[in-house]
C-alpha cells in the first residue's frame, strides 16, 4: 500500500486511475509538506522526503510539478504554485500576449519512499499555451495548456485522455516500470 501525499485532489485522481489499472494499491494522504525554494523539482521532493520520513510510517509518494514557459526561460517552473495563486490562468495569458513563442512544457518529479529506499521518477509533456481558457475539467493550468499532438486543452479532456499525454502519466509509467522490477530474461 502506497500513501499519495498531496493536497491536490486532481493529482490523486489521475494517478489513482493508472495505478488501479495496474493493480497497485494507493490511498490519499491529504496533507501538505514543506516545499523549499530550489531551482529543480527534484530538489523540492528530496527535501520534503527528509521531513516526511519522520512523519509517515509506511511507503509514500509525493509529486512536485510545474509549468515551464519557453518565452520566459522556463518561468514559472518551480514557482508555478505561487504564480497560479497570484496571477491565475488569465495572468499567464496576459504575460504571453506579446511573447515570441507560446511553447511550454509541464514537468513532474515523483519521489517514492519504499522501505529504506528513495526513488525519483520524472515525466515531461511538451505543448503550447492556448489563446484563451477552455474547458472545465482538470485543475491548475489545465484550461490553458494544449499538449503536443492534441487540439483540446487538458481541461477539455477526461482523466483517461489527459493520462494519454501528461507529464504525470509519464512519471507514473516510470514508477510502474520500477515497481515491476527488471524483466525476466
Ligand atoms: P501538492 O503540493 O499538495 O501535491 P499542489 O497543487 O501545491 O499540490 P504543485 O506544487 O506540484 O502541487 O503544483 C504547482 C502548480 O502547478 C499548482 O498551481 C498546480 O495547480 C499546477 N499544476 C501541477 N500539475 C498540474 C497539471 O497536471 N495540470 C495543471 N496544473 C498543474
Explain what you see.
- The protein is 35% helix and 25% strand.
- The mean pLDDT is 96.
- α3 (80-86) crosses α4 (88-95).
- With 185 residues, the protein is an alpha/beta fold.
- A six-stranded mixed sheet has the order 2-1-3-4-5-6.
- It has a single domain, classed as Maf protein (Alpha-Beta Complex).
- It starts with a strand and ends in a 5-residue tail after the last helix.
- The radius of gyration is 16 Å and the shape is globular.
Quick rundown:
The chain is α/β, with parallel strands linked by helices.
Features:
35% helix, Maf protein, six-stranded mixed sheet, globular, 185 residues, binds inosine 5'-triphosphate, 6 helices, alpha/beta
> Can you tell me the CATH class?
Alpha Beta
Our count of helices gives 6
The topology string of helices and strands comes to EHEHEHHEEEHH
Structural class: alpha/beta
* Low-confidence spans: none
Give a topology summary.
Layout: E1 2-5, H1 9-22, E2 26-29, H2 41-55, E3 59-69, H3 80-86, H4 88-95, E4 103-114, E5 117-129, E6 145-147, H5 159-165, H6 167-180
Parallel strand pairs: 1-2, 1-3
Antiparallel strand pairs: 3-4, 4-5, 5-6
The chain binds inosine 5'-triphosphate (ITT).
